[in-house]
Amino acid sequence: MSEPWSCLPSPLADDVAASWESVFPEGLPGWLLDDTGLSAEIIARAMARSLFLRQTLERHPEQVQALLESRMLGEPTTPEYLQERWNEYLCEVADEPGLHSALRQFRRETQFRIIWRDLMRWADLHETMAATSTFAEVCIQGALDWLHETACEQYGTPWGVDPVSGSEAPQSLIVIGMGKLGGCELNVSSDIDLIFAFPSKGETRGGHRSLDNQQFFIRLGQRLIQALDQITADGFVFRVDMRLRPYGQSGALALSFAALETYYQDQGRDWERYAMVKSRVVAGDRKAGQVLMENLRPFVYRRYIDFSAFESLRSMKAMISREVRRQGLENNIKLGSGGIREIEFVVQAFQLIRGGRDRELQQRELLVILNELEALELLPSKVVNELREAYVFLRNLEHALQGMEDKQTQLLPEDELSRARVALIMGFEDWQACHAVLEQHREKVATHFANIIATEEDEENGQSSLDEGWFELWLAEVDEVSDTQWLEKHGYEDPAGSLALLASLRDSRTVQTMQTQGRKRLNQFMPVLLQALTEVEKPSETLSRVLQLVEAILRRTAYMLLLLENPGARTQLVSLCSESPWIARQLAETPLLLDELLNAESLYHPPAKDELQDDLRQQMLRISYDDLENQMEFLRHFKKAHTLRVAASELKGTLPLMKVSDYLTWIAEVVLDHVIDVAFANLVARHGYPGRADGAANETDFAIIGYGKLGGIELGYTSDLDLVFVHGADPELVTDGDKPIDNAVFYTRLGQRIVHILNAQTPSGQLYEVDMRLRPSGNSGLLVSTLQAFRKYQLNDAWTWEHQALARARGVAGSRDTLAAFEAVRHDILCQSRDREKLRQDVLEMREKMRANLGTTESRKDEVFHIKHDTGGIVDMEFMVQYLMLAWSNAYPELTKWSDNIRQMEELGRAGVLPVEDAEKLREAYIALRSSIHRRALQNLNSQVAADAFVEERKYIWSVWQKIMSG
């Protein structure tokens, strides 16, 4: 009699044989074979396909036995069956830990059934997606029902206006499923995207004390997330992602219908329309939820054919391409070229554009919409068939990849054994045959995707006719004299130097060892680049800068292809590198920034702060907060990309100096807000939310205060961040999680994590250099202070220079309440009555120390002028303004309104503290000096200029200094 695994391919047969005895040490049990429709051969085939199935049989046989007794694996997984099984588990639940345990036991059993039927091909794709989605709904609704009841016992029942009847009634949480859960297309190992809503404002009734409805539902939502997401000894149920809610991680966890409708009407973005296409009420009061969904429908589906959606769809397509390049996702069947997301994108593009008029498109399931697109003749039958076949193949393959280990992944395997498993699951003889069919599907999808969502860059640009001389020069096919004459003729100011650089590149080991395809692209690209350089003022100098980038992309020739196929991007590259060696270095260090050159319109018009927030939020939706490495990498790319836009705009003249600093400051603020969210979410997952005296939940109470250039809205391209961390919570209260810690410890760890995220060196460099020395007591002080401690220190222990620094401080990120409280503290400290003579002496003493330590030495004063630190420089103006602020804010409290020097000067002039003429002239001088520093930074130059620079400005600044500071 042959062994049960003998019919399996050799590597899998050996694998199953090696594990058979550990799974069944006493032989196959009778309960596994008797009246189950299973056999030893079937079990061996299942074990070959999935380590998860194998491990569950080995570690939890009692659960598999209970599963088989409830329904044989050969029968479909229906909604009715899942509900019945959950009800049986629910009977054993007596408390919240018991609920958590029951949900996780239920998950293990259900995952075993769904994955078995899918990988054995006993279920088709539709059943697998429907069963997984229904299972999620049963879990969410089951947990919500139990938790709602216990919350009502604790806090009372929330009451408000019922949206269906219009009268007062008890209220329930409405859970909206987004993405694949909303579309009933959930993966076998997926996270779930949710939004929490409740009908209306109101209060609880019948509890020990009334609670605001929003607070009630926020607490209920937190407990629901913990019930599903928290990892215990039994594992977890679903990873829960709440970032699609309004305002993302910084938004309230639950919002009223009115608040949701107002948000989407006033602030809803195009990508949120895209996300809402699949939204569906999955738990809670479904009748009330349906009212909400109907009210949100006009936001998603315009009443006309919405051609304006094309532009935003093109932006999303560009984002997809950038992400694939950034993360090297070519082997990702969801995100890579020709993957699942491109099919979803094509279908949802039609829904967004035409769904308002063609109501047949206002459905959620992708395969259903594909049929409608064919019926409406919006896509040819051939295209629909190819997309449908590819989608089914890719989703089945996705389930194969995930079901092998019950692991969320879309990456193709690289080891032989995993590839053999996938081939077996997908019905192929070997991996090569499976991969060949996969590539055929992906190629078709990529073609249709490019045709339907085409951008100008995707269209045939065609290479302009290029003189053969450039090819001959790059390939060194003629003599050096002729090459030199050729470059001279075409405007190269240092032809010999340029030829030497080209020879060095051509003869380098990296070029000599390039693969054939890469070498071919390089030989196509270099002549095109050399010709493009003739359009700039100094081609030789610019070539030396651009070659840094060329060397960086020799092994990543996709970037050469990008520049070859996009003449516009090529033009921007040589133009920007010609004008700024700093930009050239940035591009060489981070070639992914080349993506920014594809769109000249956005390159020279950087986004305002709200658009920056939206861009970062949208990009980060695809990166889990747990994935700190990817979070940090993308934040660095985000900062570099937007900083490049600012630099390009300054060089182009589309941004004046004041706006340059504004934009650089906004970038930092948006990054800091997100870093707080990431660090806070990670700590909350471990320890729960910080305790609050008022019992409110979901608040950080944490704020970042910016000092120096960040506080003064004067950031430069290479500025570090002077930060102080404060919080408004009671440090002695504790967090509400399973591993509670004191608030003081929580916020200290939060501060440490934030500094780590900002300071850490990653492959993409450092996000920002952080300086925390301005916090109370400096380096010897606590990393994070309570607001009360901060106030006490400023009143009793701070030095004059610390109050000077406070004049340029402002809240830049974090809790709005804490930021407002800080501003009140700042105002009170600055408005203290002071002895002006003592203040003057303190300021003069500090200025002289700085001048001695940082200014130009006496021996070099005839040679150079340090724009910031020398007499008549920027620091003199800053110290004058700070002195006047501290001396006169008691009499003129409005002086504390601003933290930046320019507006402080203007306010001092308005108040009459500084003559208006002086205020205006100082303002002009300040802008001139700062403009010089900005421009020099883009040329990789420091803040020292020739001694005869800014002579008139320096004289004037020093004359005002003597008038004000000499007593």
From TrEMBL:
InterPro entries: GlnE, GlnE_rpt_dom, NT_sf, PII_UdlTrfase/GS_AdlTrfase. Its EC number is 2.7.7.89, 2.7.7.42. GO terms for molecular function: [glutamate-ammonia-ligase] adenylyltransferase activity; [glutamine synthetase]-adenylyl-L-tyrosine phosphorylase activity; ligase activity. Residues 467-967 are annotated as: Adenylyl transferase. Residues 314-452, 850-935 form the PII-uridylyltransferase/Glutamine-synthetase adenylyltransferase domain. Keywords: ATP-binding, Ligase, Magnesium, Multifunctional enzyme, Nucleotide-binding, Nucleotidyltransferase, Transferase. Residues 1-457 are annotated as: Adenylyl removase. Gene3D superfamilies: 1.20.120.1510, Beta Polymerase, domain 2, Nucleotidyltransferases domain 2. It is an enzyme of class 2 (transferase). It catalyses: [glutamine synthetase]-L-tyrosine + ATP = [glutamine synthetase]-O(4)-(5'-adenylyl)-L-tyrosine + diphosphate; [glutamine synthetase]-O(4)-(5'-adenylyl)-L-tyrosine + phosphate = [glutamine synthetase]-L-tyrosine + ADP. Pfam families: GlnD_UR_UTase (PF08335), GlnE (PF03710). Residues 43-290, 571-824 form the Glutamate-ammonia ligase adenylyltransferase repeated domain. Its cofactor is Mg(2+). Belongs to the GlnE family. Involved in the regulation of glutamine synthetase GlnA, a key enzyme in the process to assimilate ammonia. When cellular nitrogen levels are high, the C-terminal adenylyl transferase (AT) inactivates GlnA by covalent transfer of an adenylyl group from ATP to specific tyrosine residue of GlnA, thus reducing its activity. Conversely, when nitrogen levels are low, the N-terminal adenylyl removase (AR) activates GlnA by removing the adenylyl group by phosphorolysis, increasing its activity. NCBIfam families: PRK11072.1. HAMAP family: GlnE. This is Bifunctional glutamine synthetase adenylyltransferase/adenylyl-removing enzyme. It comes from Marinobacter aromaticivorans. The gene is glnE.
